[in-house]
Amino acid sequence: MDIFKKKFVCSSIVITVVLIMFNAVSVFAGQLGGQVFFRGGATHLSNDRGHELFTDTEPISVTPSNDDNGDWYVGAGLDIPLTKLGPGSLLGEVMVEYAQFSNKRVVSAVGTVATGSTLYAETQIAELNVVIAPKYRFEQFGPVRPWIIPIGLAFMVNSPPSNTTTYLDIGLHHAVGIEYVVTPLVSIGLDIRYTNALGFTGGDIQGTSLDDTEVDYLTYGAYVGVNF
């Protein structure tokens, strides 16, 4: 009986500690004002990248152009609380995003050049975007919290490279959104973001029909935030 009593006492202590910790997390969650969030939704590329050398081997390709300008994205980020400002909070956001715009089976530039034969491959047109930005969140509406990023700095990696084989760019990032605090721990929200590339991917290739690469794009979708 002593063994059963000891097990009962130990189990009771463990359950009590877990309940106290859970209650403490529930009380203090969100008090710092920070958040880790996970995003997903749709994309729209301002100018499609069809008829480029590495996207569909233009001008020698006879297949349909890899010219879709919208598909999907997934991303995640961290909002770091900086200070209370007016009716809301000023946050520092660090966000990483993968956006895909087109995905077709086309003539492969690398395969064709390497072998001298017309080889086909599924080729994705995508962007990896890392954003650092100030974010202002309005907090006077209770659980409903609109927010805005007036301007942020974006570091952009293009895949495949531009016609001049350049794949890095920088840009300006703008965003608006609104979220609802479901519990102190969890928020759900909607956002729209636009990244304006500054155009360091190279220009036209003289004597050809190959234009410069433009990678301004829009995303819109939903996210789930874990508050701290």
Short structural description:
The protein is an alpha+beta fold and 228 residues long.
Structure description:
The chain has three helices and eight strands; from the N terminus they run αβαββαβββββ. Helix content is 17%, strand content 51%. It is an alpha+beta fold and 228 residues long. The chain is elongated and about 70 Å long. It has one domain: Porin, CATH 2.40.160.
- Following the backbone from N to C, one meets helices and strands in this order, namely HEHEEHEEEEE
CATH topology heading: Porin
Shape estimate: elongated
What is the domain total for the residues?
Answer: 1
Uncertain runs are: 17-22, 24-29
Biggest sheet: strand arrangement: 1-2-3-4-5-6-7-8
Specify the biggest β-sheet. 8 strands, antiparallel, barrel
Strand % is over 45%
CATH-scheme architecture? Beta Barrel
Binned, the helix content reads 10-25%
Return the CATH class: Mainly Beta
| Counted beta strands | 8
C-alpha termini separation = 44 Å
Topology of this protein?
Blueprint: H1 2-28, E1 35-45, H2 53-56, E2 72-85, E3 88-107, H3 109-115, E4 120-138, E5 144-159, E6 168-181, E7 186-197, E8 217-227
Antiparallel strand pairs: 1-2, 1-8, 2-3, 3-4, 4-5, 5-6, 6-7, 7-8
Observed structural traits:
51% strand, 228 residues, eight-stranded antiparallel barrel, alpha+beta, Porin, 17% helix, 8 strands, 3 helices
